[in-house]
Design goal:
By secondary structure, this protein is an all-alpha fold. The chain is 94% helix and 0% strand. The termini are far apart.
Length: 35
């Protein structure tokens, strides 16, 4: 189980980074639309 976590950790970081990027990008689009 721990080995699986170590293997998946970079993938998890990628997914979290992609999620944050999408959320911030979405907020940026909302800010532009509000302006």
């Amino acid at each position: 189980m721990l080995r699986l976590w170590v293997i998946n950790r970079p993938l998890l970081k990628f997914y979290i980074g992609d999620f944050i990027h999408r959320v911030t990008h979405g907020f940026a689009l909302i800010d532009i639309a509000c302006l």
